[in-house]
Structure formats: C-alpha cells, structure tokens
From TrEMBL:
<keyword id="KW-0808">Transferase</keyword>
<dbReference type="Pfam" id="PF02590">
    <property type="entry name" value="SPOUT_MTase"/>
</dbReference>
<comment type="subunit">
    <text>Homodimer.</text>
</comment>
<keyword id="KW-0698">rRNA processing</keyword>
<protein>
    <recommendedName>
        <fullName>Ribosomal RNA large subunit methyltransferase H</fullName>
        <ecNumber>2.1.1.177</ecNumber>
    </recommendedName>
</protein>
<comment type="function">
    <text>Specifically methylates the pseudouridine at position 1915 (m3Psi1915) in 23S rRNA.</text>
</comment>
<dbReference type="InterPro" id="IPR003742">
    <property type="entry name" value="RlmH-like"/>
</dbReference>
<feature type="binding site">
    <location>
        <position position="105"/>
    </location>
    <ligand>
        <name>S-adenosyl-L-methionine</name>
    </ligand>
</feature>
<keyword id="KW-0489">Methyltransferase</keyword>
<feature type="binding site">
    <location>
        <begin position="124"/>
        <end position="129"/>
    </location>
    <ligand>
        <name>S-adenosyl-L-methionine</name>
    </ligand>
</feature>
<dbReference type="InterPro" id="IPR029028">
    <property type="entry name" value="Alpha/beta_knot_MTases"/>
</dbReference>
<feature type="binding site">
    <location>
        <position position="73"/>
    </location>
    <ligand>
        <name>S-adenosyl-L-methionine</name>
    </ligand>
</feature>
<dbReference type="InterPro" id="IPR029026">
    <property type="entry name" value="tRNA_m1G_MTases_N"/>
</dbReference>
<comment type="similarity">
    <text>Belongs to the RNA methyltransferase RlmH family.</text>
</comment>
<keyword id="KW-0949">S-adenosyl-L-methionine</keyword>
<keyword id="KW-0963">Cytoplasm</keyword>
C-alpha cells in the first residue's frame, strides 16, 4: 500500500517543515509515502466559504485515482489511540488497498462532493490545531503506527 497525504497550502515554518521531512524519511523504511501540497486558492477574499471549499475540492479530485481510498482528517471523524490507528492501517493493507489518500482540508473543511467521495474520516483530537501542525502530527502518527506494527521500541505503553 502507498499512503499519500494531501494538504492545502504550504508550510510557512521551516522548523515544522524540517520535522515533517524527518518523519517522511523515516517512513520510507516501512511504506511508500508521499506528501502532496495543493497550492493555496488564489483570490479567496472574493470567494464565499462554499466557493472556496468547492475550488479546494476540485483541486483534491484532480489528484485522485479511481481506485484510491479517500480518508479525510475532519473534526467529526473517528478518533483512535495510536495502537488502534496502527490496526486501522493494517486492516487497510490487508484489504489490498493500493493507495490510501489522507487529506487535510482548507480552513473551512471540505466540499460536499469530497465528503460524498470519502470512505472514512479521522480526527486527531477534539482540540483545534493549525493545518501546519496537523501535517506533522499525522505524519508522526503514521510513522508511529508502523513502528507499533513492527514491534519496534519507538512507542511505549
């Protein structure tokens, strides 16, 4: 299985980008992983929230393949412990999924079309985090999940 993380907008913080890159490199020992950044939508001041979500949705759809399993990071998604998340990924791999695409949406969430196409929603917390921080958290949790699956000492009970 390959995991693709899609995110709207670039990371402004070089410190965060360095940490994200570190976990991306670590992940390569376990799985094919790709971080794909969708450029910020231009002229958002002239767009309503719905229009902005629709434009972001169009950009997301352009990056999907017909066989992709689409999972949204969403505040109303299912929350997992790290061990539960590792089991979730293992089940996806056992199901023979070729590519799972995890999407971090824009500031207003996702368009209806994206919600309809999604096969799952995950939540990292009930708290609100910046979209830039979420990138680091999800990449680290994917890495942690694979160390759990391999019984490596990164994760402690």
């Amino acid at each position: 299985m390959m995991i693709k993380l899609l995110a709207i907008g670039k990371t402004d913080s070089t410190h965060l980008q360095e940490l994200i890159s570190e976990y991306e490199q670590r992940l390569k020992h376990y799985i094919k992983f790709e971080l794909d950044i969708i450029p910020d939508i231009k002229n958002v001041k002239n767009l309503s929230e719905v229009q902005q979500k629709e434009k972001e949705g169009e950009a997301i759809l352009k990056r999907l393949q017909p066989t992709d399993v689409l999972v949204l990071l969403d505040e109303h998604g299912k929350q997992h412990t790290s061990i539960e998340f590792s089991n979730y990924l293992q089940k996806k791999m056992n199901a023979g999924i070729k590519r799972m695409v995890i999407v971090i949406g824009g500031p207003y969430g996702f368009s209806e079309e994206i919600y309809q196409k999604a096969q799952g929603k995950l939540s990292l917390s009930k708290m609100t985090f910046s979209h830039q921080m979420v990138r680091l958290f999800i990449v680290e949790q994917i890495y942690r999940a694979f160390t759990i699956l391999k019984n490596e000492p990164y994760h402690h009970q």
